[in-house]
Amino acid sequence: MNSKQLTCRKQCRGRREICFLTVQGDGMTLSNHVEKPVTEGLSHRTRDQWEIDRSSLKFVRKLGHGQFGEVWEGLWNNTTPVAIKTLKSGTMDPKDFLAEAQIMKKLRHTKLIQLYAVCTLEEPIYIITELMKNGSLLEYLQGKGRGLKLQQLIDMAAQIAAGMAYLESQNYIHRDLAARNVLVAEPNVVKIADFGLARLIKEDEYEARVGARFPIKWTAPEAANYSKFSIKSDVWSFGILLTELVTYGRIPYPGMSNAEVLHQVEHGYRMPCPPSCPAPLYDIMLECWHKDALKRPTFETLQWKLEDFFTMENSEYKEASAY
């Protein structure tokens, strides 16, 4: 396993201070000494080492909302920017909501969104994570990121592959890998988020419960048709994500319904090469979409292919990306 894929798993306790620059929405830049939440426990006086006092949180700005709750930008101890995910009372079982946090406690990698803490002793329940100021990769590509060059897009893809290679090494599957579930911090720094559907697999395959719903256009055919999920179905989704990157957030299979996609893909259809996409990158997409799941590449292989994409053989793409 490539050592770059693995992060230090040493357990840290307590708090630490860091100095950082924050660019505010009004353009002002502040230099602060802040308390940085150590990602393995902020409190040891409660039943859960991840539990913190909700009074230490300040809600700053709503980032989004959904059927089950909201996501806010906030401050911890009035110093550290965090993201706060809330559960609306009565919308779902708190155990199901906290299942995502339970998974995040176990997974530690620089390319995965890091859990900071939880507030579970009373409602509403909160999950507190690191804040990614630029939001989802999908929105970023459709907005501020429209000027990104190919080399920058490939670098983002390599970062995502690195995070997925770590999941692969830990026998976890994501099951919802897409640009909407990748978050962007500083320009070109991306991390995988939304582990609500993630699962630990004891064998090579996971069978989803009857009635489970999945995003058809990102889901491998064996998963969409037979609910058979594996790390190789995540590889298929990664190939779809690559098309989102090079098209700046275009929806996959444009003009096709979910039913049409299911039928056509099962009968061998694959999306054509996107405009301005170099042939070697499209070849990687096609490898991800191999009908035989076992013949799809590993994420470790995808990581090094993307990290080494701009070699001498592909130097013309590197030069073209500069303009």
Describe it.
One of its GO terms (molecular function) is non-membrane spanning protein tyrosine kinase activity. ATP binds at residues 85, 180. The active site is at 176 (proton acceptor). Its EC number is 2.7.10.2. The chain is an alpha+beta fold and 323 residues long. It folds into two domains: 54-130, Phosphorylase Kinase, domain 1 (2-Layer Sandwich), CATH 3.30.200; 135-311, Transferase(Phosphotransferase), domain 1, CATH 1.10.510.10. It has helices at residues 94-106, 137-142, 150-169, 221-226, 231-246, 258-266, 279-288, 299-307, 315-320; strands at 15-23, 29-37, 57-65, 70-76, 80-86, 115-119, 126-130, 172-173, 182-184, 190-192, 199-200, 206-207, 228-229. The radius of gyration is 20 Å and the shape is globular. Residues 1-34, 41-46 and 319-323 have low confidence and may be disordered.
What's the gist of this structure?
The chain folds into 2 domains: 54-130, 2-Layer Sandwich (Phosphorylase Kinase, domain 1); 135-311, Orthogonal Bundle (Transferase(Phosphotransferase), domain 1), CATH 1.10.510.
Q: Helix tally?
A: 9
The coarse silhouette is globular
Largest sheet: 5 strands, antiparallel
CATH-defined topology of the largest domain = Transferase(Phosphotransferase), domain 1
What is the succession of H and E elements? EEEEEHEEHHEEEEEHEHHHHH
Structure classification: alpha+beta
CATH superfamily label of the largest domain: Transferase(Phosphotransferase) domain 1
Low-confidence stretches: 1-34, 41-46, 319-323
Question: Beta-strand level of the residues, as a percent range?
Answer: 15-25%
Residues in helix, %: 25-40%
Number of strands: 13
* Average pLDDT over all residues: 82
Mind telling me which CATH architecture of the largest domain this is? Orthogonal Bundle
Intertermini distance: 36 Å
The number of distinct structural domains comes to: 2
CATH top level class name of the largest domain: Mainly Alpha
Strands in their spatial order, largest beta sheet: 3-4-5-7-6
State Rg.
20 Å
